[in-house]
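ARCHIVE CARD
CATEGORY: sequence design from structure
SOURCE FIELD: tokenized fold
FIELD CONTENT:
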């Protein structure tokens, strides 16, 4: 069994609903999401319900997860691994300092 989740197409914003969609299904699960899952180092992530979180834990690897909060689907929210949640920065200077990465000039 492949330990990496088969990723689908990016979803248009649909609130905080479960995005699980088996290949034979025509629509996403759509139940209220209870978990926010970070899949990999490319920051691919999705929302899922309790039922499908159990399936994820049985079948696939993921980097991190936390309970869904109102900030999880806010544009500009940051995944805070240490606190196990998403957080929307209140100050722009806070945003800049958290996403700042060193750049090497060639």
């Amino acid at each position: 069994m492949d330990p990496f989740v088969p990723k689908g197409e990016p979803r248009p914003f649909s609130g905080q609903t479960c995005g699980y969609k088996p290949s034979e299904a025509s629509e996403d699960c759509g139940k209220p999401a209870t978990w926010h899952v970070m899949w990999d180092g490319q920051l691919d992530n999705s929302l899922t319900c309790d039922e499908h979180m159990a399936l994820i834990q049985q079948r696939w690897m993921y980097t991190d997860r936390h309970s869904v909060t109102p900030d999880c689907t806010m544009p500009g929210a940051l995944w805070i691994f240490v606190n196990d949640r998403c957080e929307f920065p209140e100050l722009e200077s806070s945003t800049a300092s958290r996403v700042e990465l060193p750049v090497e000039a060639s």
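CARD ANNOTATION: The beta strands are 35-38, 45-48, 64-67, 78-80, 85-87. The longest helix spans residues 50-59.
SHELF: design records, drawer C
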